[in-house]
């Protein structure tokens, strides 16, 4: 093991070019295929989703009539939307679709596309992405009105250029933003997004929980040094409070650079979060740890217990539950 460093010593920078270079599936999905997806026979919608994705990939992209008319047959819509709970394999299917599609194509999280617009500007982003065979958007979550309008406009322009769209989320497209901002005030934008997608509902159990049960693993204070020393590769060591404070100084689009090259992180004195803004930043950080398959060693409160009940009862519930599932996997080594 190299000498432990601190997350606070890492100063990630990110250019538009670097964002574009990252618009590919995460490394654990670099070889994902429809054949390697293992549908749960207890949930027929999983097998149906595989067939629908295969059909979408091979469908003729030529379409007639108005691009976004609700009167068109669902199969003719330019986008497919994978809706379902966390851990049912939506990202695997999205990556498999990306691999199936020919030509120039992009795969990124919702936040990476909005960060790209921020780095390059709107018109250059459209110029870069337009004409791609497929634009894959993972973790499609609309948390504010500005993002709603931005993504609606961006998708309109990309579809007009002939690109097809595929997205995953834990929220059906006509419910995006619900419980987080005044959705009724932005119904037009939300409906416009929904009209672009054929929605595929995927039911099932969290596959991460098929292999283990219980809480996120913790390490006793007296065993921390030994756990850190046992890590083969790069590790950072920070108090939970220091890490949460530092995340506030780094734009979430840079989190993947923050964890680049790490094999593990250690967080000491973990406790329940009191601030929802901090909680949401930590969720975004967990997503990038999971994508990069970075293990977590933690002391204190189990990480699956850091989101209080009032947060879990709010509009971000599904985000917190997804993060909880991933935290259990990351602390248990199931990554």
Structure description:
- Keywords: ATP-binding, Cell cycle, Cell division, Nucleotide-binding.
- It is built from 13 helices and 8 strands.
- It has 335 residues and is of the alpha/beta class.
- The protein has 2 domains: 31-205, Rossmann fold; 208-332, Rossmann fold.
- Strands 2-3-4-1-5 form a 5-stranded parallel sheet, sandwiched between helices. It has a 3-stranded parallel sheet with strand order 6-7-8.
- Strand 3, helix 6 (145-160) and strand 4 (164-169) form a beta-alpha-beta unit.
- Helix 2 runs parallel beside helix 3, helix 4 (110-120) crosses helix 5 (122-129) and helix 11 packs across helix 13 (317-332).
- Mean pLDDT is 84; it is low at 60-75 and 177-187.
Q: What's the layout of helices and strands?
A:
Layout: H1 16-21, H2 44-58, E1 79-84, H3 90-100, E2 105-109, H4 110-120, H5 122-129, E3 134-138, H6 145-160, E4 164-169, H7 187-194, E5 197-202, H8 224-229, E6 235-239, H9 240-247, H10 255-258, E7 264-270, H11 276-292, E8 295-300, H12 309-312, H13 317-332
Parallel strand pairs: 1-4, 1-5, 2-3, 3-4, 6-7, 7-8
Helix pairs in contact: 2-3, 4-5, 6-7, 11-13
DSSP summary: helix tally: 13
Give me the side-by-side strand order of the main sheet. 2-3-4-1-5
User: Spans of 5+ residues with little confidence (pLDDT < 50)?
Assistant: 60-75, 177-187
> What value does the average pLDDT take?
84
Q: How many beta-strand elements?
A: 8
Large-scale geometry: globular
Percent range for β-strand residues: 5-15%
Output the CATH class name of the largest domain: Alpha Beta
- CATH topology (level 3) name of the largest domain: Rossmann fold
SSE arrangement, N to C? HHEHEHHEHEHEHEHHEHEHH
Number of domains: 2
What's the name of the CATH homologous superfamily of the largest domain? P-loop containing nucleotide triphosphate hydrolases
The amount of helix comes to 25-40%
Based on CA atoms alone, the radius of gyration comes out at: 20 Å
End-to-end distance, in Å?
20 Å
How is the quaternary structure best described? single chain
CATH architecture of the largest domain: 3-Layer(aba) Sandwich
The profile of the biggest β sheet is: 5 strands, parallel
